[in-house]
Specification:
alpha+beta; 4 helices; about 35% helix; Alpha-Beta Plaits; about 30% strand; single chain; globular; about 120 residues
């Protein structure tokens, strides 16, 4: 499982409403994503709790595998999908792709911890 985190900044209330409605479960963006990129198994949208302008949102995209994400990102249809949600925001910044930490296999050297 791969998680891609993107930060969105939104000033306009109409654009904010569109971003929320389309990215939340059952929204138009999610429905389109299910057809265009089936390896994208879920998207969550979190709103920053400080009530200041611009509104800040953290979007979390859950992909089945790293390879599926990389392959999908080369697709023009997937690029259009991501461009559509960026249009709702004044700015967007991809924080990065993250995977769950795993315990090293037996035989691998463990890193020493420094206090």
């Amino acid at each position: 499982m791969l998680l891609v985190a993107t930060l969105f900044s939104v000033h306009d209330l109409n654009a904010e409403d569109l971003l929320i409605r389309s990215l939340c479960r059952g929204g138009s963006w999610q429905i389109a994503a299910r057809h265009v990129a089936p390896e994208l198994v879920g998207t969550d949208l979190l709103r920053h709790q400080q009530d200041v302008a611009p509104a800040l949102y953290l979007c979390l995209d859950f992909w089945t595998k790293t390879e599926a994400h990389l392959r999908s990102c080369r697709s023009p249809a997937v690029q259009s999908l991501f461009a559509a949600r960026r249009m709702c925001a004044d700015s967007a910044f991809e924080l990065g792709a993250f995977a769950f930490a795993t315990i090293p296999e037996v035989g691998n050297s463990l890193r020493a911890f420094v206090n």
